[in-house]
């Protein structure tokens, strides 16, 4: 028998229970699809390729980010409700109370 626990709080989960939720996430780079324009056709393609290769060489020094990352989390009911209420896990920012001058 497989053992499941909440990936957030560690609580034991029974898969057949109604208190077990699966959250799947997929993160990937946002890019517009390439579209050819008349200006693109006028550019010197050899020069452009050389520029792109030089940029790529410069980027090789930096650690590469994965192009796509898929994640799966098993959550209990309480953690699932918390996730739905605040999916990015941001702290709620309190408002400042300034005294009148």
Please give the structural blueprint.
Elements: E1 4-5, E2 12-13, E3 20-28, H1 38-42, H2 45-59, E4 68-76, H3 77-85
Antiparallel strand pairs: 1-2, 3-4
Features:
single chain; two-stranded antiparallel ribbon; alpha+beta; 101 residues
Helix content: 25-40%
- Give unreliable regions as ranges: none
Distance between the termini: 67 Å
Please provide the count of β strands.
Answer: 4
Helix and strand pattern = EEEHHEH
Radius of gyration: 24 Å
Adjacency order of strands in the biggest sheet: 1-2
**How much of the sequence is in beta strands?**
15-25%
Net shape: extended
Tally of helical runs: 3
Please outline the major beta sheet.
2 strands, antiparallel
Q: Outline of this structure?
A:
This protein is α+β, with helices and mostly antiparallel strands. It has a domain at 1-29 and 65-87. It contains 3 helices and 4 strands; from the N terminus they run βββααβα.
Walk me through the structure:
The chain contains three helices and four strands; from the N terminus they run E-E-E-H-H-E-H. With 101 residues, it is of the alpha+beta class. A hairpin with a 6-residue loop joins strand 1 and strand 2. The chain has a domain at 1-29 and 65-87. The longest helix is centred in the middle third of the chain and has 15 residues, at 45-59. Strands 1-2 form a two-stranded antiparallel ribbon. A two-stranded antiparallel ribbon has the order 3-4. 29% of the residues lie in helices and 22% in strands. The model has no long low-confidence stretch (mean pLDDT 79).
